[in-house]
Amino acid sequence: MTEPSLHSSGAELLEVHRLRLVEAPAPHVSSEDRLALDRAWEEAVRANPSFFDGPVVASAGLTWEGPHSVVLAWVRTTYRHYALRRVPGAASWLPSLFVAIVQPTEDGRLLAGRMSPTTASPGRWQLPGGSVEPPDDHEPLDVAALRRHAARELVEETGIDTAPDDLTLWGVTRGENGSIGVLFLAPCQPAALLRKRFAALVSAETALGREPELDRIAFVRSPAELADLGGALVDYLEPVVRRYAEERSGAMSDPNRSLDDGG
């Protein structure tokens, strides 16, 4: 089954209204890949000592099961496993699974943040969000858990404290390398408030001797404005901005339509 999507730079933005998550077994890692993995991880840590090998959830594939409804398979692993992406020919590498928050302003722009120098993608512009962590034993990984994780990422990266129940499933992005992002739409906020909260967060982190995950934020209204940010862009950012601009335009022309009604 094929569902509508937006494509840009190898990334797809899938219109998903229902999402079911299913745990799958992790792929077998050969002894040859294991040795290459350990070497690649050691090199990555030497280049960026802030890397840590904590638990993380990876994507094991996405399939459609109905109109605007997908099943997302996931596996438990650690950040070390992602170093296999650096190994040419490795057969057991896994794409990432992450959440991202579409945070609009009251005047129709979207918040984008630039990754700080100590992150895995320094200088890259993207939405607030991050990799998904595995659930505790006997706890499910479902949309509610992803929503809670998204709310936590939003406050940790921008200072905006939004209740998980106020986040709406907005879509799913699939990168050229198979990475899967689950997108949540946050309530509109004044741009001045977003700037104030972010400045307070940066000040607090700096006072504690820590570098914030985002070192800058900006607001964009259309894909054309992304070029003004300067620097690399995550592959899903352009289709997200484009879809939001189109939905906002449609909502403004139709008073009976809202931005979170699935389009």
TrEMBL record:
Domain spans labelled Nudix hydrolase: 92-246
This protein's UniProt keywords: Hydrolase
Entry-linked Pfam families: NUDIX
Protein name, UniProt field: NUDIX hydrolase
InterPro entries listed in its UniProt record: NUDIX_hydrolase-like_dom_sf, NUDIX_hydrolase_dom
MF terms (GO), sorted A to Z: hydrolase activity
Xref: SUPFAM superfamilies: Nudix
Region (Disordered): 117-136
